[in-house]
Amino acid sequence: MAAADFPALQGFYQLLFLYLEPTSTMLPALMAWTFPGARCFHHQLVPTANSVPTTPLETRTQMLVWQLGNCYLLLGLVSSLVFRAARDALKHDPVSQERIVGALLAALAIADVTHIVATLIGLPPALRYDFLAWNPMTHGNISFVVVLFSVRIAWFFGLGRTPYWFFAFKKTKTA
Fold it and tell me: Please, what is the average pLDDT of the chain?
């Protein structure tokens, strides 16, 4: 589908929010459910030099990890499907497209902030700001989310795109 069909989300924004982010949020669900599995997923939440334990997770912990995976899947599906629905149903209405895209991006931006804060609070104090000690899971939960949040804010300010609703000021004719 041509970029002109989705004026509210073009170029880099479309690539990131329509394809990369949904994939990056659905992938952890599959990883928690299948390979490397809930035990590895749980172990990687807090960086450690210890290897993944061989003992099974306690039943409640396993259920919690699987449910977290389900939340990741839901997040990816909502993003992917809502953006596509706005694009396909409102092809010739960029204002409505942008209002729907903006509503979803606002919700995701709020979730970004709470996710970053929750992750930082959950890390042991010695690891919070020791970026080199972070593992890929921690960088995904903090570093990548900071990037996503920053790009969402850039979208709201109309950087690199034509705004149709947010920051779209109507031009008035002068006599």
Answer: 93
pLDDT of residue 24: 96
Which pLDDT belongs to residue 43?
Answer: 95
Closest CA to 102 of 164, 170, 35: 164
Q: Give the three-class secondary structure for 93.
A: coil
Q: What is the DSSP letter of 5?
A: G
Residue 168 has what pLDDT? 72
Q: How far apart are CA 171 and CA 114, in angstroms?
A: 37
Upper half-sphere CA count for residue 172 (Cβ side, 13 Å): 2
Domain boundaries, the chain: 16-47+54-156
How many beta carbons lie within 10 A of that of residue 28, not counting itself? 21
Dist. CA 175–CA 170, nearest whole Å: 16
pLDDT over 70 (residue 2) = no
Radius of gyration of the chain (CA): 19
pLDDT digits (tens, 9 = 90+) for 60-76: 999 999 999 999 999 99
By CB atoms closer than 10 A (0-12, 13-18, 19+), residue 156 is: middle
